[in-house]
Amino acid sequence: MVATVLVTISLRYGGPHRNVVKVATVRVSPDAPVQVNELRDYGVEPITLSLVTLVATIAHAPVAVSVSAQAEVRAEPVDPNASAYRVAVTNKSALPLMWFQTYRGDRRTISGRERGSRNLPVVMPGSEYTFELTSYASRKSPDSGDVWEPQDRIELTSLMWQDGLVEGAPAVLQGRFDASKAAQLRALLTRLRGGGQPSIASLRPEIARSMSFDPETRQFRDSLLADLDSLERTRRSSGGQNYETWLAGTITKCQQWLSRIVLPKS
To answer: Strands 34-36, 47-49: parallel, antiparallel or unpaired by DSSP?
Structure first.
């Protein structure tokens, strides 16, 4: 059965949704293009409508390489007609994988680092971590149109194991990153412990000035401030705890987070 499409052609004057003039309604099929000559009555050149079959956009499986023999990476299309890849990182080591960094393409124009929440391992031994990357459009010149570029290379360029061993890129930058986060956690713990039990009023400005290093620490800070607001209004945190229980639990969370921060071996 040959599919047909009913098309209504209209002209608009004076802006969107204003002064809409219906010109014609035509039926278009794959084997019968239709020329809309009625447009001439409105001083507009005729147009021709036709149905064509579009070639499906296919994401070809790129080459996937890893800097470590203990971390296997592979990439494959999400499905036959999708312009996206599913990337899988498999931990073949006996140690948890704390973070890894990947680059797309030979020019390394796009990069991103995957790590576990609050310094938890991102891939446990014998486990697999997956994420998706979409193809992107770019212009080869200012005068050309957008074209979809195949990603022919997914590269796992650096990673760190739970014992602090870093493979790939130098560990200096990562060490500075983790050391700064650890310093902010220690400072927050000092404020939370205070001299005895700090009041909500004294704790709020201290927390507001802390934990600003990266999006994850800022999110944690904002959740603490929201809990303090709730405690002040209702004497209960967003989790239903009183102030004493909330404070003790928050100190424990910070201590556990701090204990999971592994500084790279130099």
So the answer is: antiparallel
Cβ 137 vs Cβ 148: under 8 Å:
yes
Boundary of a domain, candidates 169, 204, 226: 169
* CA–CA gap between residue 39 and residue 37 (Å, rounded): 5
Nearest to 138 by CA among 104, 92, 182: 104
Distant-in-sequence, close-in-space partners of 186: CB < 8 Å, separation ≥ 6: 258
Q: Please name the residues in contact with 9: beta carbons below 8 A apart, sequence gap of 6 or more.
A: 22, 23, 24, 25, 26, 36, 38, 39, 47
Q: How many domains does the chain have?
A: 3
The answer to whether the predicted template modeling score (pTM) of the entire model surpasses 0.70 is no
Start-to-end Cα distance in the chain: 69
pLDDT digits (tens, 9 = 90+) for 80-105: 666 678 889 999 999 998 888 776 65
d(CA 77, CA 112): 19
